[in-house]
Design goal:
heterodimer, A: mainly beta, Protocatechuate 3,4-Dioxygenase, subunit A, nine-stranded mixed β-sheet, 14 strands, 31% strand, B: mainly beta, 2 helices, binds fe (ii) ion, Protocat_dOase_a (chain B), Protocatechuate 3,4-dioxygenase, alpha subunit (chain B), ferric iron binding (chain B)
Protein backbone atom coordinates (compact mmCIF):
# COMPACT_ATOMS: atom_id res chain seq x y z
CA UNK A 1 0.00 0.00 0.00
CA UNK A 2 1.31 3.47 -0.84
CA UNK A 3 0.14 6.65 0.81
CA UNK A 4 0.57 10.20 -0.32
CA UNK A 5 -1.08 13.48 -1.11
CA UNK A 6 -2.72 14.56 -4.30
CA UNK A 7 -4.08 17.96 -5.35
CA UNK A 8 -7.57 18.56 -4.02
CA UNK A 9 -10.07 21.39 -4.19
CA UNK A 10 -9.18 25.07 -4.33
CA UNK A 11 -9.23 27.57 -1.47
CA UNK A 12 -12.39 29.62 -1.13
CA UNK A 13 -12.25 32.82 -3.15
CA UNK A 14 -12.29 36.11 -1.17
CA UNK A 15 -14.98 38.12 -2.92
CA UNK A 16 -14.27 41.16 -0.75
CA UNK A 17 -10.80 41.35 -2.31
CA UNK A 18 -12.10 41.17 -5.88
CA UNK A 19 -14.28 43.92 -7.34
CA UNK A 20 -18.00 43.33 -6.74
CA UNK A 21 -20.20 42.83 -9.83
CA UNK A 22 -22.01 46.17 -9.47
CA UNK A 23 -19.67 49.19 -9.47
CA UNK A 24 -21.68 52.22 -10.63
CA UNK A 25 -18.56 54.36 -11.17
CA UNK A 26 -17.82 51.98 -14.04
CA UNK A 27 -21.09 52.49 -15.86
CA UNK A 28 -21.04 49.40 -18.09
CA UNK A 29 -21.19 47.20 -14.99
CA UNK A 30 -24.67 48.47 -14.16
CA UNK A 31 -26.56 46.46 -16.80
CA UNK A 32 -24.06 43.60 -16.89
CA UNK A 33 -23.84 42.68 -13.20
CA UNK A 34 -25.76 39.70 -11.81
CA UNK A 35 -27.90 40.69 -8.85
CA UNK A 36 -28.55 37.39 -7.16
CA UNK A 37 -26.17 35.51 -4.86
CA UNK A 38 -23.69 33.13 -6.44
CA UNK A 39 -24.40 29.55 -5.45
CA UNK A 40 -21.36 27.96 -3.84
CA UNK A 41 -20.27 24.33 -3.91
CA UNK A 42 -16.95 22.60 -3.37
CA UNK A 43 -15.04 21.78 -6.56
CA UNK A 44 -15.85 18.61 -8.42
CA UNK A 45 -13.46 17.32 -11.08
CA UNK A 46 -15.08 19.72 -13.55
CA UNK A 47 -13.85 22.77 -11.63
CA UNK A 48 -10.62 21.27 -10.22
CA UNK A 49 -9.22 20.26 -13.60
CA UNK A 50 -8.58 22.39 -16.65
CA UNK A 51 -6.78 22.47 -19.97
CA UNK A 52 -3.00 22.11 -19.94
CA UNK A 53 -0.88 23.88 -22.51
CA UNK A 54 2.52 22.67 -23.65
CA UNK A 55 5.56 24.85 -24.26
CA UNK A 56 5.68 23.26 -27.71
CA UNK A 57 2.71 25.30 -28.91
CA UNK A 58 4.61 28.59 -28.50
CA UNK A 59 6.30 30.36 -31.39
CA UNK A 60 9.70 31.98 -30.87
CA UNK A 61 8.27 35.52 -30.84
CA UNK A 62 5.00 34.87 -29.00
CA UNK A 63 6.35 36.59 -25.86
CA UNK A 64 8.02 39.47 -27.73
CA UNK A 65 5.43 42.11 -28.65
CA UNK A 66 8.15 44.41 -30.00
CA UNK A 67 8.73 41.94 -32.86
CA UNK A 68 5.79 39.55 -33.21
CA UNK A 69 3.78 41.87 -35.46
CA UNK A 70 6.64 43.97 -36.85
CA UNK A 71 7.74 44.09 -40.46
CA UNK A 72 11.08 42.43 -41.19
CA UNK A 73 13.86 44.55 -39.76
CA UNK A 74 11.46 46.80 -37.83
CA UNK A 75 10.23 46.84 -34.24
CA UNK A 76 7.41 48.48 -32.31
CA UNK A 77 7.64 52.15 -31.27
CA UNK A 78 7.71 53.17 -27.63
CA UNK A 79 9.65 52.64 -24.39
CA UNK A 80 11.04 49.11 -24.52
CA UNK A 81 10.37 47.03 -21.39
CA UNK A 82 10.66 43.51 -20.04
CA UNK A 83 7.75 42.54 -17.81
CA UNK A 84 8.61 39.51 -15.72
CA UNK A 85 7.96 37.67 -12.47
CA UNK A 86 6.41 34.53 -11.08
CA UNK A 87 3.00 32.96 -11.04
CA UNK A 88 2.48 31.66 -7.51
CA UNK A 89 -0.36 30.09 -5.58
CA UNK A 90 -1.59 31.42 -2.23
CA UNK A 91 1.01 29.33 -0.41
CA UNK A 92 3.75 30.98 -2.51
CA UNK A 93 4.35 27.79 -4.45
CA UNK A 94 5.28 28.27 -8.10
CA UNK A 95 2.59 27.48 -10.65
CA UNK A 96 4.44 25.83 -13.56
CA UNK A 97 3.00 25.54 -17.07
CA UNK A 98 0.57 28.41 -16.53
CA UNK A 99 -0.50 30.00 -19.83
CA UNK A 100 -0.39 33.80 -19.75
CA UNK A 101 -1.96 35.73 -22.63
CA UNK A 102 -1.67 39.51 -22.78
CA UNK A 103 -3.04 42.39 -24.82
CA UNK A 104 -2.41 46.11 -24.75
CA UNK A 105 -2.60 49.46 -26.52
CA UNK A 106 0.40 50.81 -28.40
CA UNK A 107 2.69 53.56 -27.10
CA UNK A 108 0.13 56.18 -28.14
CA UNK A 109 -2.74 54.48 -26.30
CA UNK A 110 -4.42 52.97 -29.39
CA UNK A 111 -5.58 49.36 -29.74
CA UNK A 112 -5.44 47.44 -33.00
CA UNK A 113 -9.19 46.75 -32.88
CA UNK A 114 -12.15 47.71 -35.07
CA UNK A 115 -13.94 49.30 -32.14
CA UNK A 116 -11.07 51.57 -31.07
CA UNK A 117 -11.50 54.95 -32.76
CA UNK A 118 -9.02 56.95 -30.64
CA UNK A 119 -7.20 59.50 -32.79
CA UNK A 120 -3.72 58.32 -31.77
CA UNK A 121 -2.33 56.45 -34.78
CA UNK A 122 -1.79 52.71 -35.14
CA UNK A 123 1.82 51.54 -35.15
CA UNK A 124 2.33 49.39 -38.26
CA UNK A 125 4.86 47.30 -36.34
CA UNK A 126 2.75 46.60 -33.25
CA UNK A 127 -0.13 44.12 -32.91
CA UNK A 128 -0.59 44.30 -29.14
CA UNK A 129 -0.90 40.62 -28.31
CA UNK A 130 1.49 38.13 -26.72
CA UNK A 131 1.60 34.92 -24.72
CA UNK A 132 3.94 32.73 -22.73
CA UNK A 133 3.92 29.72 -20.40
CA UNK A 134 5.62 29.64 -17.00
CA UNK A 135 8.61 27.36 -16.52
CA UNK A 136 9.00 24.82 -13.71
CA UNK A 137 9.81 27.69 -11.28
CA UNK A 138 6.59 29.51 -12.22
CA UNK A 139 8.69 32.18 -13.93
CA UNK A 140 7.61 34.13 -17.00
CA UNK A 141 8.87 37.12 -18.97
CA UNK A 142 7.53 39.11 -21.88
CA UNK A 143 9.19 41.83 -23.90
CA UNK A 144 7.01 44.71 -25.05
CA UNK A 145 6.68 48.48 -25.18
CA UNK A 146 5.10 50.49 -22.39
CA UNK A 147 1.53 51.25 -23.51
CA UNK A 148 0.13 54.79 -23.47
CA UNK A 149 -2.80 56.00 -21.37
CA UNK A 150 -6.03 56.51 -23.30
CA UNK A 151 -9.41 58.21 -22.89
CA UNK A 152 -12.56 56.09 -22.73
CA UNK A 153 -16.27 56.79 -22.72
CA UNK A 154 -17.49 56.64 -19.12
CA UNK A 155 -17.54 60.07 -17.48
CA UNK A 156 -16.64 62.76 -19.96
CA UNK A 157 -12.96 62.95 -19.02
CA UNK A 158 -11.95 59.46 -17.86
CA UNK A 159 -8.52 58.12 -18.83
CA UNK A 160 -7.13 54.67 -18.33
CA UNK A 161 -3.69 54.47 -16.73
CA UNK A 162 -1.11 52.67 -18.85
CA UNK A 163 -1.93 48.98 -18.47
CA UNK A 164 -1.50 45.51 -19.93
CA UNK A 165 -4.36 43.02 -19.76
CA UNK A 166 -3.49 39.47 -18.68
CA UNK A 167 -5.41 36.21 -18.90
CA UNK A 168 -4.10 33.36 -16.74
CA UNK A 169 -4.74 29.62 -16.61
CA UNK A 170 -3.54 27.67 -13.59
CA UNK A 171 -3.95 23.95 -13.02
CA UNK A 172 -7.71 23.96 -12.55
CA UNK A 173 -10.52 25.96 -14.07
CA UNK A 174 -11.35 27.35 -10.62
CA UNK A 175 -8.11 29.36 -10.89
CA UNK A 176 -9.06 31.02 -14.18
CA UNK A 177 -8.41 34.75 -13.98
CA UNK A 178 -8.28 37.90 -16.09
CA UNK A 179 -6.73 41.05 -14.68
CA UNK A 180 -4.74 44.16 -15.61
CA UNK A 181 -1.20 45.27 -14.75
CA UNK A 182 -0.36 48.92 -14.09
CA UNK A 183 2.96 50.74 -13.78
CA UNK A 184 4.51 52.21 -10.64
CA UNK A 185 4.19 55.98 -10.35
CA UNK A 186 1.28 56.51 -12.77
CA UNK A 187 -1.03 59.22 -11.33
CA UNK A 188 -3.94 57.86 -13.40
CA UNK A 189 -4.11 54.68 -11.28
CA UNK A 190 -5.78 56.50 -8.40
CA UNK A 191 -8.21 58.28 -10.73
CA UNK A 192 -9.42 55.32 -12.80
CA UNK A 193 -13.01 54.06 -12.28
CA UNK A 194 -12.02 50.56 -13.47
CA UNK A 195 -9.07 50.34 -11.06
CA UNK A 196 -11.38 51.64 -8.35
CA UNK A 197 -13.85 48.81 -8.82
CA UNK A 198 -11.39 47.05 -6.46
CA UNK A 199 -12.45 48.14 -2.98
CA UNK A 200 -9.14 47.71 -1.13
CA UNK A 201 -6.13 49.92 -1.86
CA UNK A 202 -3.82 47.06 -0.78
CA UNK A 203 -5.38 44.87 -3.47
CA UNK A 204 -4.85 47.54 -6.12
CA UNK A 205 -1.18 47.80 -5.12
CA UNK A 206 -0.68 44.12 -6.00
CA UNK A 207 -1.52 44.94 -9.63
CA UNK A 208 1.14 47.66 -9.94
CA UNK A 209 4.36 46.47 -11.58
CA UNK A 210 7.53 47.84 -9.98
CA UNK A 211 10.59 49.14 -11.79
CA UNK A 212 13.25 46.42 -11.49
CA UNK A 213 16.66 47.77 -12.44
CA UNK A 214 18.37 44.44 -11.68
CA UNK A 215 16.66 42.79 -14.61
CA UNK A 216 17.00 45.46 -17.27
CA UNK A 217 18.73 44.60 -20.51
CA UNK A 218 21.38 47.36 -20.48
CA UNK A 219 21.19 49.73 -23.45
CA UNK A 220 18.06 47.86 -24.59
CA UNK A 221 15.02 47.63 -22.28
CA UNK A 222 14.02 48.52 -18.71
CA UNK A 223 12.41 45.84 -16.56
CA UNK A 224 9.23 45.82 -14.49
CA UNK A 225 8.39 43.06 -12.05
CA UNK A 226 4.91 41.65 -11.63
CA UNK A 227 4.02 38.54 -9.63
CA UNK A 228 0.61 36.96 -10.09
CA UNK A 229 -1.12 34.89 -7.42
CA UNK A 230 -3.65 32.19 -8.23
CA UNK A 231 -5.88 30.37 -5.77
CA UNK A 232 -4.23 27.88 -3.44
CA UNK A 233 -5.16 24.25 -3.28
CA UNK A 234 -5.96 21.75 -0.56
CA UNK A 235 -4.05 18.48 -0.42
CA UNK A 236 -5.99 15.24 -0.21
CA UNK A 237 -4.51 12.11 1.31
CA UNK A 238 -4.82 8.97 -0.76
CA UNK A 239 -3.97 5.31 -0.33
CA UNK A 240 -3.25 2.97 -3.21
CA UNK A 241 -3.77 -0.71 -2.52
CA UNK A 242 -1.37 -2.67 -4.68
CA UNK A 243 -2.55 -5.70 -6.64
CA UNK A 244 -2.54 -8.96 -4.68
CA UNK A 245 -2.00 -7.38 -1.27
CA UNK B 1 -0.01 31.95 9.14
CA UNK B 2 0.77 33.83 5.98
CA UNK B 3 -1.13 33.23 2.82
CA UNK B 4 -0.85 35.36 -0.27
CA UNK B 5 -4.01 36.98 -1.54
CA UNK B 6 -5.21 35.98 -5.00
CA UNK B 7 -4.48 38.64 -7.62
CA UNK B 8 -7.64 40.73 -7.85
CA UNK B 9 -9.64 40.47 -11.06
CA UNK B 10 -10.18 43.32 -13.50
CA UNK B 11 -12.63 43.41 -16.39
CA UNK B 12 -11.54 41.81 -19.66
CA UNK B 13 -12.62 45.06 -21.31
CA UNK B 14 -13.77 45.57 -24.91
CA UNK B 15 -10.54 44.38 -26.54
CA UNK B 16 -10.18 40.93 -24.98
CA UNK B 17 -10.25 39.53 -28.52
CA UNK B 18 -6.81 40.95 -29.30
CA UNK B 19 -5.19 38.81 -26.64
CA UNK B 20 -7.37 35.71 -26.66
CA UNK B 21 -8.77 35.34 -30.19
CA UNK B 22 -6.37 37.51 -32.24
CA UNK B 23 -7.33 36.11 -35.64
CA UNK B 24 -10.99 36.89 -34.90
CA UNK B 25 -9.84 40.40 -33.89
CA UNK B 26 -8.19 40.90 -37.27
CA UNK B 27 -4.54 40.30 -36.35
CA UNK B 28 -3.98 38.16 -39.40
CA UNK B 29 -1.45 35.38 -39.01
CA UNK B 30 -0.89 35.84 -35.26
CA UNK B 31 -0.01 32.47 -33.69
CA UNK B 32 -0.16 30.87 -37.12
CA UNK B 33 -3.74 32.06 -37.61
CA UNK B 34 -5.06 29.55 -35.07
CA UNK B 35 -7.07 31.05 -32.23
CA UNK B 36 -6.61 28.85 -29.17
CA UNK B 37 -9.70 26.84 -28.24
CA UNK B 38 -11.42 27.35 -31.60
CA UNK B 39 -11.58 23.61 -32.32
CA UNK B 40 -12.37 21.18 -29.53
CA UNK B 41 -12.61 18.21 -31.87
CA UNK B 42 -9.20 17.42 -33.34
CA UNK B 43 -9.89 14.06 -34.96
CA UNK B 44 -12.36 11.21 -34.92
CA UNK B 45 -13.81 12.03 -31.51
CA UNK B 46 -16.07 9.51 -29.81
CA UNK B 47 -19.64 10.32 -28.87
CA UNK B 48 -22.41 12.50 -30.19
CA UNK B 49 -21.44 15.70 -32.02
CA UNK B 50 -23.50 18.63 -30.80
CA UNK B 51 -23.69 22.38 -31.30
CA UNK B 52 -24.38 24.74 -28.44
CA UNK B 53 -25.42 28.26 -29.31
CA UNK B 54 -27.05 31.26 -27.72
CA UNK B 55 -26.57 34.81 -26.54
CA UNK B 56 -25.32 36.59 -23.45
CA UNK B 57 -28.03 39.13 -22.59
CA UNK B 58 -27.70 42.22 -20.39
CA UNK B 59 -30.26 43.75 -18.04
CA UNK B 60 -31.87 45.77 -20.84
CA UNK B 61 -32.43 42.66 -22.99
CA UNK B 62 -29.57 43.48 -25.35
CA UNK B 63 -27.16 40.72 -26.44
CA UNK B 64 -23.49 41.40 -25.67
CA UNK B 65 -21.47 41.72 -28.86
CA UNK B 66 -18.10 41.93 -27.12
CA UNK B 67 -18.16 38.96 -24.75
CA UNK B 68 -15.96 35.88 -24.74
CA UNK B 69 -16.94 32.45 -23.45
CA UNK B 70 -14.90 29.43 -22.50
CA UNK B 71 -16.20 25.95 -21.81
CA UNK B 72 -14.57 22.95 -20.11
CA UNK B 73 -16.07 19.49 -20.07
CA UNK B 74 -15.48 15.76 -19.95
CA UNK B 75 -15.40 13.64 -23.10
CA UNK B 76 -18.22 11.32 -24.14
CA UNK B 77 -17.05 8.73 -21.61
CA UNK B 78 -16.95 11.25 -18.76
CA UNK B 79 -13.14 11.56 -18.73
CA UNK B 80 -11.19 14.83 -18.62
CA UNK B 81 -8.28 15.64 -20.92
CA UNK B 82 -6.15 16.45 -17.88
CA UNK B 83 -3.03 15.03 -16.21
CA UNK B 84 -5.13 14.71 -13.05
CA UNK B 85 -7.55 12.29 -14.71
CA UNK B 86 -6.86 8.93 -13.02
CA UNK B 87 -9.95 6.97 -14.08
CA UNK B 88 -8.79 6.27 -17.63
CA UNK B 89 -7.47 7.87 -20.77
CA UNK B 90 -9.55 10.69 -22.20
CA UNK B 91 -10.35 10.71 -25.92
CA UNK B 92 -7.18 11.97 -27.66
CA UNK B 93 -9.32 13.50 -30.43
CA UNK B 94 -11.17 15.81 -28.04
CA UNK B 95 -9.59 18.63 -26.01
CA UNK B 96 -12.50 19.35 -23.64
CA UNK B 97 -11.73 23.09 -23.74
CA UNK B 98 -13.29 25.63 -26.07
CA UNK B 99 -13.15 29.39 -26.42
CA UNK B 100 -15.48 31.49 -28.59
CA UNK B 101 -16.28 35.20 -28.88
CA UNK B 102 -19.86 36.36 -29.29
CA UNK B 103 -20.46 37.57 -32.85
CA UNK B 104 -19.66 41.27 -33.28
CA UNK B 105 -22.93 41.88 -35.19
CA UNK B 106 -25.47 39.40 -33.85
CA UNK B 107 -24.04 38.62 -30.42
CA UNK B 108 -24.47 34.88 -30.98
CA UNK B 109 -21.90 32.40 -29.67
CA UNK B 110 -21.49 28.85 -30.92
CA UNK B 111 -19.51 25.81 -29.79
CA UNK B 112 -19.07 22.61 -31.77
CA UNK B 113 -18.41 19.87 -29.26
CA UNK B 114 -19.43 16.39 -28.13
CA UNK B 115 -22.03 15.61 -25.53
CA UNK B 116 -20.18 14.92 -22.28
CA UNK B 117 -20.54 11.76 -20.23
CA UNK B 118 -21.30 11.85 -16.52
CA UNK B 119 -18.62 12.62 -13.92
CA UNK B 120 -18.79 11.95 -10.19
CA UNK B 121 -19.74 14.23 -7.33
CA UNK B 122 -17.15 14.06 -4.51
CA UNK B 123 -19.17 11.45 -2.59
CA UNK B 124 -19.20 9.10 -5.59
CA UNK B 125 -22.73 9.75 -6.81
CA UNK B 126 -22.84 10.63 -10.50
CA UNK B 127 -23.63 14.14 -11.65
CA UNK B 128 -25.83 14.75 -14.65
CA UNK B 129 -23.85 15.50 -17.84
CA UNK B 130 -22.83 19.15 -17.79
CA UNK B 131 -20.39 21.71 -19.16
CA UNK B 132 -18.64 24.44 -17.18
CA UNK B 133 -19.05 27.89 -18.80
CA UNK B 134 -16.98 30.98 -18.03
CA UNK B 135 -18.04 34.40 -19.34
CA UNK B 136 -15.95 37.57 -19.51
CA UNK B 137 -16.70 40.95 -21.11
CA UNK B 138 -16.49 44.68 -20.70
CA UNK B 139 -18.53 45.57 -17.61
CA UNK B 140 -18.00 42.16 -15.97
CA UNK B 141 -15.52 42.71 -13.15
CA UNK B 142 -14.86 39.05 -12.36
CA UNK B 143 -15.45 36.20 -14.83
CA UNK B 144 -18.84 34.54 -14.33
CA UNK B 145 -19.09 30.77 -13.93
CA UNK B 146 -22.15 28.73 -14.73
CA UNK B 147 -23.03 25.26 -16.04
CA UNK B 148 -24.92 23.91 -19.02
CA UNK B 149 -27.14 20.88 -18.42
CA UNK B 150 -29.17 19.17 -21.15
CA UNK B 151 -32.94 19.15 -21.65
CA UNK B 152 -32.94 15.52 -22.83
CA UNK B 153 -31.33 14.29 -19.58
CA UNK B 154 -34.40 14.77 -17.42
CA UNK B 155 -33.91 11.82 -15.10
CA UNK B 156 -30.18 12.51 -14.61
CA UNK B 157 -30.94 16.19 -14.00
CA UNK B 158 -33.56 15.42 -11.39
CA UNK B 159 -31.06 13.21 -9.50
CA UNK B 160 -28.14 15.63 -9.87
CA UNK B 161 -26.51 16.45 -6.50
CA UNK B 162 -25.88 20.09 -7.38
CA UNK B 163 -29.19 20.89 -9.10
CA UNK B 164 -31.19 19.24 -6.33
CA UNK B 165 -29.59 21.36 -3.57
CA UNK B 166 -30.52 24.68 -5.19
CA UNK B 167 -33.04 26.40 -2.92
CA UNK B 168 -34.95 28.27 -5.62
CA UNK B 169 -35.89 25.36 -7.88
CA UNK B 170 -37.74 27.77 -10.19
CA UNK B 171 -34.31 29.06 -11.27
CA UNK B 172 -32.94 25.64 -12.29
CA UNK B 173 -34.31 25.95 -15.87
CA UNK B 174 -31.80 28.81 -16.41
CA UNK B 175 -29.10 26.08 -16.44
CA UNK B 176 -30.76 23.74 -18.93
CA UNK B 177 -29.95 23.95 -22.63
CA UNK B 178 -32.95 23.25 -24.85
CA UNK B 179 -32.43 20.55 -27.46
CA UNK B 180 -33.51 21.14 -31.08
CA UNK B 181 -32.10 18.40 -33.32
CA UNK B 182 -28.32 18.28 -32.75
CA UNK B 183 -28.30 21.87 -31.48
CA UNK B 184 -28.75 23.00 -27.92
CA UNK B 185 -29.88 26.57 -27.24
CA UNK B 186 -28.50 28.19 -24.14
CA UNK B 187 -28.98 31.91 -23.43
CA UNK B 188 -27.18 33.49 -20.50
CA UNK B 189 -29.09 36.31 -18.75
CA UNK B 190 -26.87 38.56 -16.67
CA UNK B 191 -29.83 40.19 -14.90
CA UNK B 192 -33.60 40.28 -14.71
CA UNK B 193 -36.33 37.76 -13.90
CA UNK B 194 -34.53 35.06 -15.90
CA UNK B 195 -31.08 35.77 -14.42
CA UNK B 196 -28.91 32.71 -14.97
CA UNK B 197 -27.63 30.93 -11.90
CA UNK B 198 -23.95 31.76 -11.47
CA UNK B 199 -21.75 29.65 -9.24
CA UNK B 200 -19.00 30.37 -6.78
CA UNK B 201 -16.63 27.60 -7.82
FE1 LIG C 1 -7.27 48.34 -21.94
Amino acid sequence: MTKGFKPGTFFQRDFDWHPPPLTPGYKTSIARSPQRARIAFDNTMTEATGPVFGHGMLGDLDNDLTLNYARPGQSAQGPRIILHGHVLDQEARPVPNALLECWQANAGGRYRHKKDGYLAPLDPDFGGCGRTITDERGYYAIRTIQPGPYPWPNAVNDWRPAHIHFSLFGQGFAQRLITQVYFEGDPHIALCPIVNTIPDKAAIDTLVAKLDMNHTAPMDARAYRMDFVLRGRRQTMFENKMEGM
Amino acid sequence: MRYLKESPSQTAGPYVHIGCVPSFAGLEGMYGGNDLGKSMITGDARGERITIEGHVIDGTGTPLKDAMLEIWQADAAGLFHSPEETRGDADPAFTGWGRQPTDAVTGRYRFETVKPGAVPWPDGRMQAPHILVWIVARGINLGLSTRIYFSDEESANSADPLLSRIEHQNRVPTLIARRDGATYHFDIHLQGPDETIFFDI
